[in-house]
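Q: I have 225 residues here and want to know how they pack in 3D. Can you give me a structure?
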Amino acid sequence: MISVKNLNQSFGKKVVLDDVNIEIEPFEICALVGRNGAGKSTFINSLLGLLPAHEGTISINGCPVNAKTQEWKKSIAYLPEKFMLYPLLTGYENMKFFAEAIFKKADESRIESMLRSVRLWDDRNEPIKKYSKGMLQRLGLAVTLYQDANILILDEPTSGIDPIGRVEILEVLKSLHDKTILLSSHHLDEIKQICTHVAYLNEGKMTKYTVAEFLAAQNLGGTGS
C-alpha cells in the first residue's frame, strides 16, 4: 500500500503539492492524472524518495520513505517514461545486464518468463536498435517486472507508442493481478480500460476517485470499471 499524509512540496514560493493525502490500496490500478505542470513528476519523485518531503510523510507497505530506511525500496519498482536501454545489446542481453546490476546474479528462467510475459521471447536475440518504440517499452516493463516488487510506478507507459503497441502494453498491465500500480497517463481510454481509481492532481490538491466518479466529476461521460 502507498500512504501519503499531509505532503507539501514547494520550489521557492511556488507550492506544487499542497497538503496531499492519499492511500492506494493493494491491487488497485490507480491513474495519476493532471494537466502538464500540475506536479505529477514531483509527486512520483517524492514517492521514490528522490525528492525529500518538505512536510508530511510517505510510507510504502508500512515502511517510511526517507534516507534513513531502505526496507521500502524492496517493495517498489519504477518505469520512467524514457527507460535507458543499451541499443547494441539484444533484448536478452539487456535483461541479463539489468538483472545482474540489481541482484548480482541473473536468474535465466525468470528472464525467460518476463520476456514471454511481454511477448518478446521470440525477439530476444535481436539487437534492440531494431525494436519498435512499443517493443522497447515492453522490454523496459520486463526489466521492471523482473524486480518482483509488489508496487509498480509507471510514468506514461504508453507515451509515443502506436495503437497496436499501446494495446500490447495495456494487455500486460491488465494481467498483473498481484500488483499495485500507479501510472501517470493522459489517455482517458486506457484509464477506462484498466484502472480502478484515479488520483487527480489540480492546483496542488489531490483527490482520489473511482474511475466512474472521476468521469462524472469532470463531465467526461462514459463509464469506468
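Q: Anything worth noting?
A: The chain has seven helices and ten strands. The first strand starts at residue 2 and ends at 11.
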